[in-house]
Amino acid sequence: MDPLEAPDVxxxxxxxxxxxxxxxxxxxxxxxxxxxxDDLQGFYRDMVVIRAFDRxxxxxxxxxxxxxxxPSFGQEAAQVGxxxxxxxQDHVFPSxxxxxxxxxxxxxxxxxxxxxxxxxxxxxxxxxxxxxNTNIYTLVLGSQTLHATGVxxxxxxDGLSGSGDPERDQAVIVYYGDGASSQxxxxxxxxxxxxxxxxxxxxxxxxxxxxxxxxxxxxRTPLVNRGRGYGMPSIQIDGNDVLASxxxxxxxxDEARSGLGPRAIEAMTYRMGAHTTSDDxxxxxxxxxxxxxxxxxxxxxxxxxxEGRGASAAFFADVExxxxxxxxxxxxxxxxLPLPSVESIFEHVYTERHPVMEEQLAWLKQYEASxxxxxx
Amino acid sequence: xxxxxxxxxxxxxxxxxxxxxxxSDRVLMMGEDIGPLGGVFRITEGLHAEFGAQRVIDTPLAExxxxxxxxxxxxxxxxxxxxxQFDGFVYPAFxxxxxxxxxxxxxxxxxxxxxxxxxxxxxxHIGAIEHHQESPExxxxxxxxxxxxxxxxxxxxxxxxxxxxxxxxxxIFLEPKSKYWQKGEVDLTSxxxxxxxxxxxxxxxxxxxxxxxxxxxxxxxxxxLAEAEGVSCEVIDLRSLSPVDYGPILDSVRSxxxxxxxxxxxxxxxxxxxxxxTVTERAFYSLEAPVLRVSGFxxxxxxxxxxxxxxxxxxxxxxxxxxxxxx
Lengths: 376, 327
Known about the structure:
By secondary structure, chain A is of the alpha/beta class. Chain A is built from 14 helices and seven strands. Helix content of chain A is 46%, strand content 8%.
């Protein structure tokens, strides 16, 4: 028995895809039952498509097209289920591996590529409606939990939450990992969230590895217990079960938006790939462990479930085609991304024109021009 | 038998850490991924296997926790060596370093020393993403109670890390990460000079070039290019960022009358600013030109594709050399 697995973990689909809800999953079965076949197939489609993108991005890094890539491989169910549970008006704070979340919220995945290619520190504008209120990635671990809590506090102050109308009330979901859970910022975020009863869900993807450090170094007890310590209703789910991820997040977000205060979810999943392409997992973990988790693959699980429900071969072929098309699109668009301009170094450092930025840019232009004169 | 060995700076650090751990069983390593993985730059490679998990500690992912507990371990008589994974990840520990670690000896009126080393890979030129290429040295040199050093060669890395570990004061040990793979000779038998001495690395007569860490290589490149144009540059490796050893710098400036300080860090309120001011105060009548600084721009470190424009290179140093000579 895994000491980090809570006795009341919520699971709907067993690893082989059979419908076998745990007792703790029962409150969610009506919601899951209300999902259409299109909804269910959509979850599968999202997972397959993002895995293809992730694999393509990993390959692009290997080919020298990207500085780095942090794969989402293995965490598709946790991300797809929770992101599909958000409502249009919600605010989303990813960490730096939530590629599926970004896709579902509307972010152009090539904007993530731009960050990892060294073209941009942000990649996209969260205020652009196309991006679904998705904040940019945060690389200093756990920092974003405080920002999310602040946004959630603001929703309360502005009366944008807690009216009782789930179509109108806004909520915040923030993603972080088992490594980040050790950071002081995460503690402080939970203190503030609980204190101000924020409309917020803390979504912890426990992928069991912080680069080479196993989760047991971060915690000797299920991490879901942390949230309970702050007084937050906290639920551990099988993070490789997209139905559990969707249903538990949907309910938690709706409770939070209705004014009941923050919630915490711990999704038990596994980073099937490396931390990033700079990393070699064979140095610190066993092939046996990787094989065990390969047997719990979130995509295979959902595929088996859908096949049992009679999904057609044509459906699966169509998903493969879409995945292939996205990978190809990524492969084609990446090498031709326009380089950032030299001027951009000095732009948007301050909101207004700034004499130091102007002076240094002017100097740089004159300096660069001096080479052209010298060459002539 | 004790002939110098050629090795990269990373291996020299590794050898220096191993030597310090052999010398005293009170020396501990702490940090993220420093155990079986050997650190993301492999600086602690093999130490976990050799000295065990009690002395090479993979910590929870919490920089404030790493430095804060290192303070407590030092209170208990240990000599902790903390690894911060990248420059941009040191700030969660900033309170523990600047408000706690730096001040405890003073608050206890010498009743307790704080022999803690904080190793930080710093600087650019590796094409990495945000927070992985910064030069935060001025935050630490601004804080009384901290010693701050940065080796630029494998030999210095080998000896300075040991000196830092056996210093009874806290030492911020800045490792120029772009030089981790640069090879050089390491004399394993005797230390070159003290931890806080600067060093003349190239003789010249026209302009004094001073810098630290990875920039020393750039200064030597600039000096070689200048020589081809008939300009003779003297180069000084600062080595110790706090305290600064002004002796060799002032001797040089009194002979050349011109000085350029180069650094990857933004120039505003930087180490170069401090040194320029002090040299001006102490060698005013020897100067033929103002002390010039070549720095990163006063803008955030840009995305990697722009780092070549942002970071000073030999040409930027030469532009300053030309300006100094034009006075």
